[in-house]
């Protein structure tokens, strides 16, 4: 399966997915990285992997619609079977979601539907929850919305800070995301009992 990764920054989830493709855990290949920030660390990672990348920055466009069109055009150019949002800090345009139905997945550092949006780990600390975690889900048109694929829980300790909790969640994000991508690429993912096959992708 051809995987395109959208990322905005550090790219540790992207690294985990790429590593899993390389070592055969995932029956896939990262064929492109699309990033909305020039200079993001994920671009260094793509160079190291010899994977092509496309930088698309909002400030280079007249408006959001033109930006979203450029993102769609870049994604289509890589002919992906699956798009993985990995530390991607924007909401996908509806044009992208409609172009790749049930073929865009995302990882969110909270147990959805709790704590959608930014700083989810901080939201968990402020809410005083005793259990936090991460969610891998299909991307719908809403913010951090869409059918849940897998969730992993981690304990929250009384002396946790946003950083200590984020680190504990991140440790689980990588294997969680890899498990979900591996299942997708084996055509084993279903939504409400309907088989989500990646087979209708480009070959
Ligand atoms: C991760 O915690 C991810 O869940 C969130 O932002 C962080 C990005 O990490 N969206 P990375 O860029 O994958 O290292």
SSE layout:
Elements: E1 2-7, H1 12-22, E2 29-35, H2 41-49, E3 53-55, H3 64-77, E4 82-85, H4 94-99, E5 104-108, H5 120-127, E6 131-138, E7 148-155, H6 162-185, E8 189-191, E9 194-196
Parallel strand pairs: 1-2, 1-4, 2-3, 4-5
Antiparallel strand pairs: 5-6, 6-7, 8-9
Helix pairs in contact: 1-6
Bound molecules: 5-O-phosphono-beta-D-ribofuranosylamine.
Would you kindly provide a written description of the structure presented here, covering whatever features stand out?
With 203 residues, the protein is α/β, with parallel strands linked by helices. Helix content is 35%, strand content 23%. The chain has helices at residues 12-22, 41-49, 64-77, 94-99, 120-127, 162-185, and strands at 2-7, 29-35, 53-55, 82-85, 104-108, 131-138, 148-155, 189-191, 194-196. It has a seven-stranded mixed beta sheet, sandwiched between helices. It has a two-stranded antiparallel ribbon with strand order 8-9. Strand 1 (2-7), helix 1 (12-22) and strand 2 (29-35) form a beta-alpha-beta unit. The chain is globular, with a radius of gyration of 16 Å. The structure holds 5-O-phosphono-beta-D-ribofuranosylamine. 5-O-phosphono-beta-D-ribofuranosylamine is lined by residues 7, 9-13, 86-87, 107-109, 170, 173. Residues 7, 9-13, 86-87, 107-109, 170, 173 line the site of 5-O-phosphono-beta-D-ribofuranosylamine. It is an enzyme of class 2 (transferase). InterPro entries: Formyl_transf_N, Formyl_transf_N_sf, GART. Catalyzes the transfer of a formyl group from 10-formyltetrahydrofolate to 5-phospho-ribosyl-glycinamide (GAR), producing 5-phospho-ribosyl-N-formylglycinamide (FGAR) and tetrahydrofolate. The record marks 144 as: Raises pKa of active site His.
């Amino acid at each position: 399966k051809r995987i395109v990764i959208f990322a905005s920054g550090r790219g540790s989830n992207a690294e985990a997915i790429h590593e899993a493709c390389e070592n055969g855990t995932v029956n896939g290949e990262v064929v492109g990285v699309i990033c909305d920030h020039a200079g993001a660390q994920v671009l260094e990672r793509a160079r190291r992997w010899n994977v092509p990348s496309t930088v698309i920055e909002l400030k280079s466009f007249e408006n959001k619609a033109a930006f979203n069109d450029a993102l769609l055009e870049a994604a289509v150019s890589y002919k992906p079977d699956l798009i993985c949002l990995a530390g991607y800090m924007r909401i996908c345009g509806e044009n992208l979601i409609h172009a790749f139905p049930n073929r865009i997945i995302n990882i969110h550092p909270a147990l959805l539907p709790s704590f959608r949006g930014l700083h989810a780990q901080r939201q968990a600390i402020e809410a005083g929850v005793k259990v936090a975690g991460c969610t891998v889900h299909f991307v719908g048109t809403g913010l951090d919305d869409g059918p849940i694929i897998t969730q992993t829980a981690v304990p929250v300790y009384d002396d946790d800070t946003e950083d200590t909790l984020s680190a504990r969640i991140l440790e689980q994000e990588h294997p969680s995301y890899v498990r979900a991508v591996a299942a997708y690429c084996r055509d084993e993912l279903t939504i409400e009992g309907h088989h989500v096959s990646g087979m209708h992708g480009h070959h």
